[in-house]
Amino acid sequence: MILSTTPQIEGYNIREYKGVVTGETIIGANFIKDLFAGVRDIVGGRSNSYEKVLRKAKDIAMQEMEDRAREMGANAIVGIDIDYETIGKDNSMLMVATSGTAVVI
After folding, report:
1. Which of 38, 58, 96, 105 has the greatest CB tally within 10 Å of its CB?
2. Alpha-carbon gap, residue 80 to 98, rounded angstroms
3. How far from the centroid of its chain's Cα atoms is residue 71's Cα?
4. Cα–Cα distance between 21 and 60 in angstroms, integer?
5. H or E stretch covering 29
6. How far apart are CA 51 and CA 80, in angstroms?
7. Going residue by residue through the chain (105 aa), what tens digit of pLDDT does each one get?
8. Residue 58: which H helix or E strand, with range?
9. Are 105 and 8 in contact (CB under 8 A)?
10. Residue 101 in contact with residue 17, Cβ under 8 Å?
11. Pairing of β 93-104 and β 16-28
């Protein structure tokens, strides 16, 4: 499956548009990660624990979107958009939503 944020894929012609596909995931960050992230905010630096959670959430949402495209008979997704939001009480949950257009190239 070819995945692209662009509306076209160079060197390929889109033969058929299958429709919009999405993938969503919501992942909670536990209090220990919050504690270490708070320390990082005070002393500076990157929060590796949050970065790992973010990557995991994005990977799950992308895989879900790809699975849905494959079920529709697509072999590529174009125009992919990835959105990140915090939700829940005290913004304790991370939501990642992906969307794109499933196509046959």
Report:
1. 96
2. 7
3. 19
4. 14
5. none
6. 21
7. 999 999 999 999 999 999 999 999 998 765 445 545 555 555 555 666 677 778 889 999 999 999 999 999 999 999 999 999 888 777 778 899 999 999 999
8. helix 48-71
9. no
10. yes
11. antiparallel
